[in-house]
Design a protein that fits this description.
two-stranded parallel sheet, single chain, alpha+beta, 47 residues
C-alpha cells in the first residue's frame, strides 16, 4: 500500500489524487492520507 500525504487544500488533494489514480491504474494499491499540522489549524501570527 502506498500512502500519499497531501495537506487538505483543494489544490494539494487534487494533485495527489492525480498521482494516486496513476498508481492505481498501474496496478498499485494507493490511498490519500490528509495531513494537518498545528500550523494549519492555528490562526496565531507566526512572528
Amino acid at each position: 500500500m502506498i500512502r500519499i500525504g497531501p495537506r487538505g487544500s483543494l489544490l494539494a488533494t487534487t494533485q495527489a489524487g492525480v498521482v494516486r489514480d496513476a498508481l492505481v491504474t498501474a496496478g498499485h494499491d494507493a490511498e490519500l492520507v490528509i495531513v494537518s499540522t498545528e500550523g494549519d489549524r492555528s490562526d496565531a501570527p507566526i512572528a
